[in-house]
Amino acid sequence: MKILILEKNHPFIIYKLRKNGFICDEYYYELIDNINISIYDGIILRSRLKIDKKFIHKAKKLKFIARIGSGIENIDKDYASKKGITLITSPEGNKDAVAEHAIGMLLCIMNHIVSSNQQIIKKKWNREINRGIEIMGKTIGIIGYGNTGKAFAKKISGFDVKVLCYDIISKIGDNYAKQVNIDTIFKKSDIISLHVPYTKETKNMVNYDFIKKFYKPFYLINTSRGGCVTTKHLVKALKYGKIYGACLDVLEYENFSFENIFHHKKLSKNFFYLIRSNKVILTPHIAGWTKESKYKMDKKIVEKILSLNKEYNLNVK
């Protein structure tokens, strides 16, 4: 197979693929319109580029598109599927990084770690107003119980909490989380963590109507996609006390390549409320962005490509 690699990754990818007989071409800065995609059997990329219908139509030999990471919103998956192209992702590689980051953000918001640090820098020593809240004894509601949801459940369960999960796929609960319906999530949860893909169904899923269904105020963690949460409605919920605090690694203002959101033309007063509020912890889409996960995601992609190639050769024979 001849593979086109469109973004820089761990050198392990090229080394391992070439060792197994693949031809790997690297195009990191070329405009994809200038590439003769028709000669390639596979593509490896992250999130910088958009693989649309026009691009896929030109790829006459394409057998797979490998997206390093979990989301595939930058790929026209329906058209790819129609063309018989296999989509490969590697959410297994960064699930632990995302889970650790989510817990870290939660500890920060519930114990005022960031705000009290900022106060000390300004020579303010405030103890009582920074009295924290323990995770222990709380009910955690996980929405989306795939790779990252399961990793989060396993790690957070060590805090002596009750963990519930909701997913559109049935019977995927395990020893770390009891699967329940969404009404039980609304009724019982003290903390909500989102681990859903970005789809038509999850776009703006967390809006004010959704938030109002919760029986009690809660903490919100979003490490999935920014577009799953309506910022305007989140701000309203924070102001009215429906949400105690928000841990956001992703924001609605990001585009599919997750570049600097400060260039976004539609930044509003709601965004500036978030960055000024001591009820909010923000990070720049780095939950799955560790040194370890970079290698693990690339390793998983290589494993899946080799497995697909083996399957393809067997079918051809």
Radius of gyration: 21 Å
CATH-wise, what's the superfamily of the largest domain?
NAD(P)-binding Rossmann-like Domain
Largest sheet: 7 strands, parallel
- Oligomeric state of the chains in view: single chain
Total E-strand runs: 12
Kindly report the CATH topology of the largest domain.
Rossmann fold
Number of helices: 11
Give the structural class. alpha/beta
Order of helices and strands: EHEEHEHEHHEHEEHEHEHEHEH
Query: What would the principal axes of the Cα set say about the shape?
Result: elongated
What is the residue-mean pLDDT, rounded to a whole number? 93
Binned strand content: 15-25%
CATH class of the largest domain: Alpha Beta
Total discrete domains: 2
The percentage helix is 25-40%
N/C terminus separation: 15 Å
Architecture of the largest domain, according to CATH?
3-Layer(aba) Sandwich
**Low-confidence sequence ranges:** none
Can you walk me through this structure?
With 317 residues, the chain is an alpha/beta fold. It has 2 domains: 2-90 and 292-316, NAD(P)-binding Rossmann-like Domain (Rossmann fold); 95-282, Rossmann fold, CATH 3.40.50. Helix content is 35%, strand content 16%. It has 11 helices and 12 strands. The chain has a 7-stranded parallel sheet with strand order 8-7-6-9-10-11-12, with helices on both faces. Helix 3 links the parallel strand 4 (64-67) and strand 5 (86-89). Helix 1 runs parallel beside helix 11 (291-316) and helix 4 crosses helix 6 (147-156). The two termini are 15 Å apart.
